[in-house]
Design a protein that fits this description.
The protein is α+β, with helices and mostly antiparallel strands and 821 residues long. Helices cover 39% and strands 23% of the residues.
Length: 821
Amino acid sequence: MTIYDSVQVRNVARWLIACWIVSTQLFSTMSAQNPQHPVAAFQNDPNNEPREHPIDMKHMRVEVSFEPERGLVKGRVSHVFVPLRPEIDSVFFDGPAIRVLEATLNGRPLRFKTLSAGIAVYPNPPLHWGKADSISFVYEANPRRGIYFVGWNDPKSLSRKQIWTQGQGIDNRHWIPCYDDMNDKMTTEMIVTFDGAYRVLSNGAKISERSNRDGTKTWHYRMSRPHSSYLVMLGIGKYAVETRKSKRGVPVHLWYYPELGDRVEPTYRYSAEAVDFMELETGIPYPWESYSQIPVQDFLYGAMENTTATVFGDFFLVDSRAFLDQNYIDVNVHELAHQWFGDLITGRNSKNAWLQEGFATFYPKLFGRRVFGEDHYQWTRRGEHNAALAASETDRYPIVHSKAGGARIYQKGSSVLDMMMYVFGEAEFKAVIRQYLRKHSYANVVTSDLYHAFQDTLGLTAEWFFDQWLYRGGEPHYEVMYDDVVVAATSTRQTEITVRQVHPTDELVKLFRMPLVFQVHYADGTFDAKREWVEKQTERIVISNPQKKSIAFVLFDPGSYVLKKVIFRKPLAELKEQAHRAPTMIDRYDAIVAMREFDLRSKRDALVAAYEREAYHAVRAEVVSQLVNDEDDKSANLIKRALKDPHASVRLNVASSLRNVSESVRQDFEGLLRDSSYTIVLNTLERLCRRFPDNAARYLDLTKEVAGVGNQVKIKWLEIEAGLGGKSSCESIVTYASSSYEFRTRVNALNALKRLNYVDDALLPHLFDALVHPNARLRGPATDFAGYLFQQSAYAKKLQDYYRARRWEPWQREILDRVVR
């Protein structure tokens, strides 16, 4: 038995107490930093953990050449890595259907086995901790995903000839044997040998471009900072490049088709300015060497944020007229924002995809406010709210869930970031984001990392916010009403506003806690306001009115900052006042929308006045939609003016909503055939030819030189002419359905042929090519058309005979067997 003196005992006691205090503080801190979100208990998410991997990838070097007519990739890839476990005797690399010809480990032959999903290698002796190794594969592949060969087998050589990649989600594995998942990052380099008549783009800085004796060139690109494998890209085609610079000197390389130089300005408007904007908003300089953008034909989506090099569909390469119907600005800023959110920091798994897409949707909205004004910002936010609320009509998955869906990880995610600014403050939000990006640069993140940034930067616990908006589902549904009350004891007046949360609550969706603004506007033009926390099922907010002013209207959450549904019924007189005097556009718009349920006579003058007064097009378009078919002279005169409204969306609203093109508006309506918007010309041509068939030839003559995006106007022109008996027009539409054209033109042509119920022998190869096309936006309409044809016995036999008379690849037969019956 050991004996201690009294001093030793006291010292030990003090040490034990100190340890207890430290451990208590540590436990408290850990508890605060790792909130227990109960949603995990009742939301089953089998994809909630990142994929395991035994090695940490450090560098990937890819050397490739192509035989594009055969869709053939010839490559050599080398992976430098560090083992993550004490001993590793096998490693798996993703690579479905890749034919490995040779495998080496540190330059020596390596035993490997080809599996359906990739390649397994067996190091002997096993790999060990603390030592960097390198595995290389020499391989060939004919991939159907990940890399796409466009136009190389067009029999008429009208199509563009391109090679481009799309790695997200996990498709680069189809042309590069690699570890293909989000939760590992590496530096990469790409060495490409190809026909010297083309240009090549890949990630990072171009190290060299060397001419070879056989007429090919070899391009060498390299990344100096790590990124995820799905962000590796390649683009090959015939391009010109315009280079701009941001204020800080970041080179912005804008690729375009050489013969379409007039499209560079409208397409790439604000491109360099957007880099400046993102640096200012995030507080983080652009994190890579340079930034490039390249349009490609038949792209599967809108665009893709590959590190340093965004690929986008060439349907965004627009002229000044198409700019009015569809421009690239929002998508441009979205993909640029990904260079920070997605590329610099990357979600660890699909459950955290909102950390990429939510932020990349949020910043274009802020940029739109900077360029187009506050009204545009409010309108964009309303569209996001509508999309998020619509998603909840189907299911109630939280944002942080692998099955959340696009409307939640994009639009609702962006809305949540908006509400973070609203609740915690804009300057505070920016400080949090700056710290979040700095701490996790070139690494992986999960949602709790953003939560911790609030603690680390502002010292506040935002658990309640994250819990209700990110880890739980649903949105609040408020019912609002108010009373103008005379207080008997003092003979003063006060406005008593009652707010009830009326959405169903359960384990997944609880009552919401949010600070909300209430405004009481008076007849004399003044107003009182109060910001109160609403968190109970029923709340009563009192706004005193000591001067006994008459109430004009009451606003709940003016500006509509909070994502929600609202029931707030108001009399027409109050809606008129709100439409006239509410400070924000979106509140005036909401008042006009609420007038839909009232008869025309009671609201006509207020709507006409709103059209005269409002600057923002969405409000004028809503007025037009309510008055467009009103026969009163005031409305008719307004509609004639609206046909010449400065904003295309208002003119289009009239052109598409007017039930009867009467003689009184015919001349003004015909003027839309010369409109600057292709969509309006298309709509007007169809409407006029249907309404005044005797004048169809004149209308066709006026529009014969207009093509439109995806040849939309030209194909409609041919469809109308075919309806008038022009057989050659049908044959021209069939040509537009061929592989010589990009997918939007082909879709327009197939839809026109469906309406005409026209099929000839020349169409069949084009239709079957579309049925097996990699782009689902072509494949879908083609499948619909084929289904329509199979309802007619003669056409069904024609399709069946064509199918049976030809040889098909197994993958083609698998698709076609579901269509040809």
